[in-house]
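Lab meeting, item 3. Inverse folding demo.
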């Protein structure tokens, strides 16, 4: 049964249609849905489909089927990120106007090689913290490479962003308490690529604000990414939700459930005769 909508509490479940849902996804979705119901609030479903090489319509259809089978209901229409690229371009334009973006021509291989050469280099939510190689390029050199067709990404100048904000930023997690943001922990993250005008960090921050999300309930694997999101909120004058990062479900070997690890899907569990109530019990709910 859908929660009422008069308490001001708004949360969401935001899967990427790159594969089938497993028990860990069900746990996160049910936590958010139950929290909305308990608060008399709203539960939203968002499809994060900006990865055009991996996202598929059949995966999205399976996600909707699995969530409905679990007994979840959500407001319509569902927000699909691929349908709102103009929102992310507008956010990028605002950052560019403040000279907080720069093109990065480094390949992933080059960045990994740099991290290998400097094993004590800091790591952030997306792996090794980018060393800022392209930040020092002159405007003329940037223009030359772009004109030559060299692929590039747009990175946030984290140090410049911190100076632009001009104050200490914090955010609060329901389990871990108040957290202090430090740009050194994440470095100059990618906010867009030449072929896709957004990234996870940018789109999730913009989406949560546009959808009026007041409470973000998600796994601890995204805990450190919240530092990036809090910085973007400050730069774009967006509200900061309350956060709750829940533990991740593990398999019998102590490895977190994940698509790439071949975890049993909800469709597998349904095929084995499990009911939604059985799934809740398996998830510890």
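The presenter then showed the designed sequence:
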């Amino acid at each position: 049964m859908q929660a009422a909508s008069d308490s001001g509490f708004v949360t969401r479940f935001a899967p990427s249609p790159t594969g089938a849902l497993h028990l860990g996804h069900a746990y996160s979705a049910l936590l958010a849905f139950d929290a909305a119901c308990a608060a008399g609030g709203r539960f939203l479903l968002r499809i994060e489909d900006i990865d055009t090489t991996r996202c598929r319509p059949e995966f999205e259809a399976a996600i909707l089927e699995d969530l409905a089978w679990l007994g979840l209901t959500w407001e319509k229409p569902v927000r699909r990120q691929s349908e709102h690229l103009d929102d992310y371009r507008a956010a990028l334009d605002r950052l560019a106007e403040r000279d907080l973006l720069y093109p990065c021509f480094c390949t992933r291989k080059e960045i990994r090689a740099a991290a290998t050469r400097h094993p004590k280099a800091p790591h952030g939510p997306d792996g090794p913290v980018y060393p800022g190689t392209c930040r020092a390029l002159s405007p003329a050199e940037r223009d030359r490479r772009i004109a030559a067709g060299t692929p590039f990404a747009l990175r946030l100048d984290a140090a410049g962003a911190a100076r632009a904000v001009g104050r200490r930023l914090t955010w609060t997690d329901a389990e871990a308490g108040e957290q202090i943001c430090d740009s050194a922990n994440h470095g100059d993250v990618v906010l867009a690529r030449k072929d896709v005008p957004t990234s996870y960090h940018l789109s999730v921050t913009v989406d949560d604000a546009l959808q009026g999300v007041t409470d973000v309930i998600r796994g601890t694997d995204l805990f450190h990414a919240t530092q990036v999101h809090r910085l973007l909120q400050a730069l774009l004058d967006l509200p900061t939700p309350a956060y709750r990062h829940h533990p991740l479900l593990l398999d019998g070997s102590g490895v977190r459930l994940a698509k790439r690890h071949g975890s049993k899907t909800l469709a597998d569990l349904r095929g084995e005769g499990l009911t939604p109530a059985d799934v809740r019990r398996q998830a510890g709910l």
